[in-house]
Every structure is written in structure tokens, then in C-alpha cells.
């Protein structure tokens, strides 16, 4: 099931190696400071922050969670995802297809796990960290998005996480089947000043549901991490 994607991924990584023009094969940690995300024109909700640089570009592979309200519609109760380093693929032809490629692997059957996708795309060495939700630290109710590299690429750095506020939100330009594109602003932790969720694939719940039902919906997305230049 996974093997049919292998040639494409090999191609992707060969392309990145050629583009990097370094004598060693570099698959993680490429310098993307001056990379620019493809944000839709004609909107001001998502804007590249001035005076900040891109520190990481992650591929999120995981689930969006929902519970069904008494009104019979799903509401978001958080998400859980692995964040894979795709910085070395920036500027290669496959970069813009990565969320689709990863989603097609992930969604090939309900049995395919996040770890299967990690293994197919390069193994644990490409894991930047995890994306999950914590109780909103300001209000004590509801949840806040968190990005945490402490158990993966930033082991030993106690500040390598960020709890963020949602500060920008637009419908996915790719269609209503994909979750919104977001701008998040770091509130607690040193990992990033801003995080963008863009190029989303899937993750939306059905339009109606039975009250109290819980649902996890598979999705992929790009996550762009920005930090101040003074770091
Ligand atoms: C989301 O659901 C998954 C099970 O599909 C669970 O492991 C995870 O803890 C949940 N996370 C949140 C924030 O609801
Ligand atoms: C990437 O996506 C473009 C369309 O956006 C498509 O034409 C192209 O064939 C895709 N490439 C791969 C390697 O999937
Ligand atoms: C995040 O939101 C809380 C209110 O929910 C606010 O007190 C805090 O200042 C915000 N932080 C940033 C960096 O916007
Ligand atoms: C982000 O910048 C802060 C200083 O403003 C620094 O302490 C932190 O290590 C930086 N984080 C990353 C991931 O570079």
C-alpha cells in the first residue's frame, strides 16, 4: 500500500539534495529563513510578520477532533499531529504537493497510522515535534494550540514549545473540504512568535451529527514557524 509512493518520495529527496548543492545529503534543518509562504492575495487575516524569519517548515500529519453539540453540528475540540521537517524540500517541485502526497498515504485506509506516514517519508529523524492542545492558560476554559519540539528535534531545550492564540483565520482557498488556513501568535514559550497553518488537506467534520458523538478526522497541513531575528 505504501510502496507505490516510494519512487515519488525518492524523487523528492533527490531533488532536494540537488537543490541544496551540498556534498552531504541533508534532509532536515535546511535554512529557510527567507522562504515565503504562498498566502492568498486580497486578504489581510494572514500576513507575513515583519522583522521575523522562518525557523522551520513542518508537515503536520494527524487528526482534528470534534464533538457533536446539542444542535447536531460538530465543534472543534483540538487536534493531535506529528510535525515533520520539510524545510529541505522547499523550492523543489514536490514541495507544493507534500500535503496531498502525505494525506493520500495516510488516508489509504483507516489502519494507516501517523507513524506509518513518518516511516514512509523518512523515519523518526525527520520529526520536528508534536502539535496538540492544552487548556487555555488565560481563560482556564477551552483549548489552545501548542507546538512542542522538546521530545524530538529540540531535546534538552526546556523552552522549545509555544502555546498560541489564533489571530487570523480564512477558509481554505482549496475548498470547503479542507480546514481553514490560520495565523497563530505565540503567547507562552520560546519556540515561535508566529505559526501559520496553510495548504491544508481535509480535516473537516460531516455537516450533521448525533449529539455527544466524538470524531477524529485525518488531515495534513503545512506549518510555518516564525521567530524574531534576534534569536
Ligand atoms: C484527539 O483524538 C485522538 C484520538 O483520535 C486522541 O489521541 C487525542 O488525545 C485527541 N486530542 C485532543 C486534543 O482532543
Ligand atoms: C504536483 O501538483 C501539480 C498541480 O498542482 C501537478 O501538476 C503535478 O503533477 C504534481 N506533481 C507530483 C509529483 O505529484
Ligand atoms: C493571548 O490571548 C490572551 C487572552 O485570551 C491575552 O491575554 C494575551 O495577551 C494574548 N497574547 C498574545 C501574544 O497575543
Ligand atoms: C526564538 O527566539 C528566542 C529569543 O527571542 C530564542 O530564545 C529562542 O531560542 C528562539 N527559538 C528558536 C526555535 O529559534
Automatic annotation (TrEMBL):
UniProt KW S-adenosyl-L-methionine keyword: no
Keyword terms, alphabetized: Signal
Signal peptide start-end: 1-20
Statement: the UniProt record of this protein carries the keyword Signal: yes
Pfam (any one): DUF3455
PANTHER family in alphabetical order: CONSERVED FUNGAL PROTEIN (AFU_ORTHOLOGUE AFUA_1G14230) (PTHR35567:SF1), MALATE DEHYDROGENASE (AFU_ORTHOLOGUE AFUA_2G13800) (PTHR35567)
Protein name per UniProt: Malate dehydrogenase
Amino acid at each position: 500500500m505504501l510502496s507505490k509512493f516510494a519512487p515519488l518520495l525518492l524523487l523528492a529527496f533527490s531533488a532536494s539534495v540537488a537543490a541544496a548543492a551540498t556534498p552531504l545529503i541533508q534532509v532536515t534543518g535546511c535554512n529557510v529563513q527567507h522562504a515565503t509562504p504562498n498566502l492568498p492575495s486580497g486578504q489581510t487575516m494572514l500576513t507575513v510578520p515583519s522583522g521575523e524569519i522562518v525557523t522551520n517548515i513542518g508537515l503536520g500529519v494527524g487528526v482534528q477532533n470534534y464533538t457533536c453539540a446539542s444542535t447536531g453540528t460538530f465543534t472543534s475540540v483540538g487536534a493531535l499531529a506529528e510535525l515533520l521537517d520539510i524545510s529541505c524540500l522547499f523550492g523543489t517541485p514536490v514541495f507544493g504537493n507534500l500535503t496531498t502526497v502525505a494525506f493520500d498515504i495516510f488516508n489509504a485506509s483507516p489502519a494507516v497510522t501517523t507513524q506509518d506516514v513518518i516511516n514512509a517519508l523518512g523515519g523518526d529523524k525527520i520529526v520536528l515535534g508534536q502539535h496538540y492542545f492544552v487548556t487555555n492558560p488565560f481563560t482556564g476554559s477551552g483549548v489552545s494550540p501548542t507546538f512542542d519540539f522538546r521530545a524530538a528535534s529540540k531535546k534538552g531545550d526546556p523552552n522549545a514549545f509555544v502555546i498560541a492564540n489564533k489571530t487570523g483565520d480564512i477558509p481554505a482557498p482549496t475548498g470547503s473540504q479542507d480546514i481553514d488556513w490560520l495565523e497563530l501568535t505565540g503567547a507562552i514559550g520560546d519556540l515561535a512568535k508566529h505559526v501559520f497553518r496553510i495548504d491544508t488537506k481535509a480535516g473537516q467534520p460531516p455537516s450533521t451529527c448525533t449529539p455527544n458523538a466524538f470524531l477524529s478526522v485525518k488531515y495534513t497541513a503545512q506549518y510555518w514557524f516564525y521567530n524574531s531575528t534576534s534569536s
